[in-house]
From TrEMBL:
Cross-referenced CDD domains: EPSP_synthase
Region (Disordered): 1-20
Job description of the protein: Catalyzes the transfer of the enolpyruvyl moiety of phosphoenolpyruvate (PEP) to the 5-hydroxyl of shikimate-3-phosphate (S3P) to produce enolpyruvyl shikimate-3-phosphate and inorganic phosphate.
Amino acids binding 3-phosphoshikimate: 30-31, 35, 176, 178, 329, 356
Name of the protein: 3-phosphoshikimate 1-carboxyvinyltransferase
Length: 452
């Protein structure tokens, strides 16, 4: 059973809204939270984590690490205490690992287990069971792991780790931080040097954090921008005190909502601005958005600032496909912004969006068109002709189908705020995978705007 399959679907109509005002604080970064639980579980001794995202995806990672012997305990809101077992000492889980909706949990944990002498079964919900795992099965098999997967390299699958695993030099055939991280994590318990060659840079939290935990990790930059990342095993990780910065992918929904709703002036606190994550904010600025960074600082080795966002008329642009990996999860909400910009926004190079929790190109094209936007779906992107600031018409008779995809649900919720008649989405439950407080924060910022 997956995290939210037990209860009924939870539809909601998101209604047109007045300005968003005040301050909101988004929860901890999902990518960093997963890695914080995994790496502290591998460090011998006691680590503390604060600001952990307590979304279903991260809880799935925590449950898996517990099932493999780590002590992972919640001590307060976002506060966690972890006693790790040591690299090489993961225990064989007694039951299948339920990954719920989470691609990151699945692919990174496959990497960890691949170099341990244990076996694990991975299962997930309907969305995750359609996603491709061949991209991690391939390099992990080269390292000696044995994988029996459902046809097409999908879940459910059984992975038997290799001991000792074989170090490899692997060139990423797809720009994916999950594949990169899976190989590096497998490298932790592999004698010798495991190298990932990354032609297109993707989020670098694994590299930053592995170094912070004391792993021997080296990154070389080639003249054409290719990154060559090498980790030496068998590594020993030291326990840490970790503060997780706020998630820019969650902040994105509030940034776009405030830009689009007239009269808004909203500050989003504690937003992680790692350059491998923050391209959406640059793209929105290029479109004319007023997004000001306040109190730039460092949190847990990552750049962070508060973002003050004021309503701004937006202009359509051609989005450089080169920035796609640095905003890969933000395209659904960018499409909503584009639907209300003046003129045409063109996106391309987005094939990866078709293999996320849903086919985000097809699903967003359908959802926006059903809400009155002018959208053309191309093979690797969307072309959107915006309204020039006018509100979208809003939903017709049918609710928007979210396909178990949190980012579709939150993007169309924001579209509802900037519509004339509101937009109903079929199920808000997937939102809890990455942003359990989304609805409360959105309702709160709207109420602040009404009373101002
Ligand atoms: O490494 C990570 O934490 C993630 C990498 C990205 O996936 P891909 O590696 O599949 O691009 C992203 O979409 C996902 O939300 C989180
Ligand atoms: C793609 C996403 O996550 P994952 O791959 O971990 O399911 C996401 O959060 O948008």
């Amino acid at each position: 059973m997956t995290a939210h399959s037990a209860d009924a679907m939870r539809p909601r109509r998101f209604l047109p809204n007045g300005p968003l005002r005040g301050r909101v604080r988004v929860p901890g970064d999902k990518s960093i939270s997963h890695r914080a639980i995994m790496l502290t579980s591998l460090a011998v001794g006691e680590s503390r984590i604060s600001g952990l995202l307590e979304g279903e995806d991260v809880l799935a990672t925590a449950a898996a690490m517990r099932a493999m012997g780590a002590q992972v305990e919640r001590t307060g809101s976002g506060e966690w205490l972890v006693h790790g077992v040591g690299v090489g000492a993961l225990l064989q889980p007694g039951q299948a690992l339920d990954m719920g909706n989470s691609g990151t949990s699945t692919r990174l944990l496959m990497g960890l287990i691949a170099s341990h002498p244990i076996q694990a079964t991975f299962v997930g919900d309907g969305s995750l069971s359609r996603r491709p795992m061949g991209r991690v099965i391939e390099p992990l098999s080269l390292m000696g792991a044995d994988v029996t997967a459902t046809v097409g390299g999908r879940l459910p699958l059984i992975l038997r780790g290799a001991s000792p695993a074989v170090p490899i030099r692997y060139r990423l055939p797809v720009a994916s931080a999950q594949v990169k991280s899976a190989v590096l994590l497998a490298g932790l318990n592999t004698p010798g040097e495991t190298t990932v060659v990354e032609p297109v840079p993707t989020r670098d939290h694994s590299e930053r954090m592995l170094r912070g935990f004391g792993a021997e990790l080296n990154v070389e930059l080639e003249p054409d921008g290719t990154r060559v990342i090498t980790v030496r095993g068998e590594a020993e990780l030291r326990p840490q005190v970790i503060e997780v910065p706020g998630d820019p992918s969650s902040a994105a929904f509030f940034v776009v909502a405030a830009l689009l709703v007239e009269g808004s002036d909203l500050t989003i606190e504690n937003v992680g601005l790692n350059p491998t994550r923050a391209a959406l904010f640059d793209v929105l600025r290029q479109m004319g958005g007023s997004i000001e960074e306040v109190a730039r600082r460092d949190v847990g080795g990552e750049p962070v600032a508060d973002l003050r966002v004021r309503h701004s008329p937006l202009r359509g642009i051609e989005v450089d496909p080169g920035v796609a990996p640095s905003m890969i999860d933000e395209f659904p909400i960018l499409f909503v912004a584009a639907a209300m910009a003046e003129g045409r926004t063109t996106t391309s190079g987005l094939d990866e969006l078709r293999v996320k929790e849903s086919d985000r190109l097809a699903v967003m094209a359908t959802a926006l068109a059903a809400s009155g936007a002018r959208v053309e779906e191309r093979e690797d992107g969307l072309v959107i002709d915006g309204t020039g600031g006018e509100r979208l018409r809003g939903g017709a008779n049918h609710p928007i189908t979210t396909h178990l995809d949190h980012r579709i649900a939150m993007s169309m919720a924001v579209a509802g705020l900037v519509s004339r008649s509101g937009i109903e989405i079929d199920d808000t439950r997937p939102i809890a995978t990455s942003f359990p407080t989304f609805e409360a924060l959105l309702d709160g910022a709207a109420a602040e705007g009404t009373s101002a």
